[in-house]
Amino acid sequence: MGLVESWGGNAFGWFFAHLIEAPFNLVTALMNTSLWLAWVPHIQLSGKITDQAAAESLIRFIYYGASWELFFVFFFVYLVVTIIGLIRNSFMWRCVRVLEGIGNTIGRFAAWFGLLMVLQQILIIFMQRIFAVSEISLGLGMAMTHDVSWWAEELKLFNALIVCLCVSYTFVQGGHVRVDLVYSVVSFRAKRIIDMFGSIIFMIPAALLTFFYGWFFLWRTLVTPKLSASDTLKDLDKLLPKARALRWNVETIGFSPNGFNAYFLFKVLLVTFTILVLLQAIAFLYRSYLEMREGPMSEGRYLDKDSLGDPTAERVAEIH
Asked: Is the pTM of this model over 0.85?
C-alpha cells in the first residue's frame, strides 16, 4: 500500500502505517500462499533449489517470518480479539481455554519423552555394559543403526523436547519456580495487576525478541547463502536475487565423530518454545484481566490442572 514509505518519517507515522497495512497484508498472504509456501515440496537435506519460484518463495518465507509486517499482522489480530473480548467476556474466556488447552495438550504429549529418555538410557547402559556392543539398532519396520555415543547424545534432544514443549503446560499447572516477596501479601486485585504487568512487560517482549533472533539462527543452519536478522532491514527486492544461489545445507555436524548430528532440531525447538511462551503470555494476560474484573470467585475458572490423586502430594507441590 505504500503507507509506511509515505508516513514513516516519525515513530507514530511508522507505527500506524504498519497497523493500517496489517489487514491488507494478511489478506494478501492468505490469497497468495504460493508466493511464500511454494518451497515446501522441495525440502531436502542438501542440494540447490532448482525451481526459481520455489527458491524465491523460501526467501520471502524467511524474510517475512521475523519481519515487522508479520508482527503487525499478529498485533492487529491480537487487538481485534482483545477488543471483542473486552466487550464480550465470554469470548475472552473461550480464548483463554483454547490457548491454555494448546499448552496443556502439547505439554502432556511431550512429557512422555521423559519416560522414553529413561528407557533409552537404561537400554544404552544394558547393551554397552553387558553385551559390550558398539552400535544399537532401534525402530519398527525400518531400524535406525547408530553408534552408542549417538544414542547417548540424542538424550539431550529428549531433554530439550521436555523443556521447550512443556513450558506452557508447566505454567498452567503452576509448576514454575516463583519467589514471592511482595506478591503473596498483596490483595487479590493487586495480584492480578502484577500478573498483567508481568505478561505485557516481561513475557511478551522476551518471547518476541527471542523469536526474532532464533528464527534466523534456525535458518542459518538450513540454507545457504545465510540470511541474518539485519537482512530484514533491507528491501525484499534486494534479497530475492539470492534465490539464484539458494541451496539446502542442513547442519548435520555432531560434537563428536560418531555423536548425535541433528542439532538443527534444537533450533527448531527454540522457535517453538518462544511461540508457546507468547501464546501462554496472552492467555495469562486475559485470565488475569478476567479474574480481576470478576473477583476472587473467578480465580482458577476453567483451569485444567492435573490431579496427583494424593492430597498431601498436591499440597507439597503447591508449596514448592
From this structure: yes
